[in-house]
TrEMBL record:
Gene3D superfamilies: Acyl-CoA dehydrogenase/oxidase, N-terminal domain, Butyryl-CoA Dehydrogenase, subunit A, domain 2, Butyryl-CoA Dehydrogenase, subunit A, domain 3. SUPFAM superfamilies: Acyl-CoA dehydrogenase C-terminal domain-like (SSF47203), Acyl-CoA dehydrogenase NM domain-like (SSF56645). GO terms for molecular function: acyl-CoA dehydrogenase activity; flavin adenine dinucleotide binding. This is Acyl-CoA dehydrogenase. Residues 215-285 form the Acyl-CoA oxidase/dehydrogenase middle domain. Its cofactor is FAD. Residues 78-185 form the Acyl-CoA dehydrogenase/oxidase N-terminal domain. PANTHER family: ACYL-COA DEHYDROGENASE, ISOVALERYL-COA DEHYDROGENASE, MITOCHONDRIAL-RELATED. InterPro entries: Acyl-CoA_DH_CS (IPR006089), Acyl-CoA_Oxase/DH_mid-dom (IPR006091), Acyl-CoA_Oxase/DH_mid-dom_sf (IPR046373), AcylCo_DH-like_C (IPR036250), AcylCo_DH/oxidase_C (IPR009075), AcylCoA_DH/ox_N (IPR013786), AcylCoA_DH/ox_N_sf (IPR037069), AcylCoA_DH/oxidase_NM_dom_sf (IPR009100). PROSITE patterns: ACYL_COA_DH_2 (PS00073). Keywords: FAD, Flavoprotein, Oxidoreductase.
Length: 435
């Protein structure tokens, strides 16, 4: 329509401007000017008219409501979780990272490490408010976040820090009222409590469902015999949770460290060296009737216990892999070879990108399984998938971290070789922790 109006105007202007009347009275220029202005105005009017006709009706049509408005998949942290995450990351950055190298070399915890770690309040978060602690609810997801941030500083030191918290988590999750009242006050004292879970055994092809450590009933309680390996804290623990075969199935027993027949021998491993791991031997260890976690007729579920432990390791691996990626990106951007940063090479850039992708996968699977556990839903499948992925990709990321640093990655000049050794544990350890 606008083009038609403009065409008519131009034709009229051309015809009149070329006539003898326009030439005789000197009207050619004014007429051309009027025609031009008229056609331009007509074009604008027609354009607006067409635009108005083409605009859709602004009234919204029918909209379906969200079917799961209150249950949307949302990974946003709560304000409390974000505060905890930031606090633990700051502690890992300022304290843990600087202690990791020397602790690894000494195969022992720094003298005041556990005392200093009490400032984080992790012990209080493991004990219910009704018993004087700060835990207002069961939250494996929050525990996974804490583990991830601590492991960003160092996996081995994080393991030592969280070993006592894991015991408290198990007591709160499965313990009887009498067991909780007797043992949980240890976590509320001014001195750091040292406790550990002992599941792993030394025999080949070890399966956490087929324990050689055994427990038998006695008139006054139980008798335990067996060996456990990769037990942390260098024999200084005050309390152990020991997995043993009892009445045809695995169960956990609360074993005070001063019990006769219990001994510890240091046995540094390939990784986890700062956690001072070793072998725990039980030789006719006598326990009373209250030593069986949850009692004879409890709701204790050994598979859930193992799955929560494996998720704890997944969170630790995720934090360590995040540390590796955060370390490698600036290194590859600053390290130059052949006149340019090595990150300009596609082989390096793609390797870093894949590390970031796998890292996000590890985190999401771990959080998903922990969230299901937190809701009281079945989570074994998700925990198994998370552990399989983390055990595989953590080793891949650890290997690539060493490779990207070149020959330096094999030396202790950089922490990559320590990350590599620590991450290897995911493929061979069974529980020992508890979200």
């Amino acid at each position: 329509m606008a083009q038609d109006i403009q065409g008519v105007g131009l034709r009229l202007a051309s015809r009149f401007a070329g006539s003898r009347w326009a030439e005789k009275y000197g009207l050619r220029k004014p007429v051309e000017r009027i025609a031009y202005l008229s056609t331009r105005a007509g074009f604008r009017f027609a354009g607006k008219l067409l635009q108005k006709r083409q605009q859709p009706d602004p009234t919204p049509g029918e909209r379906l409501p969200n079917s799961r408005e209150k249950q949307l998949f949302d990974l946003s942290l709560t304000d409390e979780q974000q505060m905890i995450k930031d606090s633990v990351r700051a502690y890992a950055s300022d304290i843990v990272r600087g202690l990791a190298h020397d602790a690894n070399e000494a195969c022992a915890l720094p003298d005041t490490y556990l005392q200093d770690a009490m400032a984080l309040g992790l012990n209080l978060f493991a004990v219910p408010e009704s018993m004087g602690g700060a835990a207002s609810g069961y939250s494996p997801t929050t525990s996974a976040i804490i583990a991830e941030e601590l492991a960003w500083g160092d996996l081995s030191l994080a393991f030592a820090t969280l070993a006592p918290v894991a015991v408290a988590n198990a007591l709160v999750r499965w313990g009887t009222q009498q067991q909780q009242q007797r043992w949980l006050p240890l976590w509320l004292g001014e001195q750091p409590v040292q406790a550990a879970i002992a599941v792993q055994e030394q025999h080949p092809l070890f399966s956490a469902d087929k324990l050689r450590c055994s427990a038998t009933s006695q008139r006054k309680g139980f008798t335990l015999n067996g060996e456990k390996t990769l037990v942390p804290l260098g024999g200084k623990a005050q309390l152990y949770l020991v997995a043993a075969h009892y009445h045809g199935k695995p169960r956990l027993f609360i074993v005070p460290a001063d019990t006769a027949g219990l001994s510890f021998a240091a046995q540094p491993a390939m990784g986890l060296r700062a956690a001072a791991t070793g072998t725990l031997t039980l030789d006719n260890v006598k326990l009373d009737h209250n030593a069986l976690l949850g009692g004879e007729h409890s709701d204790f579920h050994y598979r859930d216990f193992l799955d929560l432990g494996q998720l704890h390791w997944c969170a630790l691996a995720t934090g360590t892999c995040q540390a590796a990626l955060d370390y490698l990106i600036p290194y590859c951007n600053e390290r130059e070879a052949f006149g340019e940063p090595i990150s300009h090479r596609q082989s390096v850039a793609f390797m870093l990108a894949n590390m970031a992708i796998e890292l996000e996968s590890m985190r999401l699977l771990t959080w998903r399984a922990a969230a299901l556990a937190e809701q009281g839903k079945a989570f074994h499948r998700e925990a198994y998938l998370a552990h399989i992925l983390c055990a595989d990709k953590a080793m891949e990321i650890g290997t690539n971290a060493v490779q990207l640093l070149g020959g330096h990655g094999f030396t202790k000049e950089h922490p990559a070789e320590r990350w590599y050794r620590d991450l290897r544990v995911l493929g061979c350890i069974n529980s020992g922790l508890h979200l």
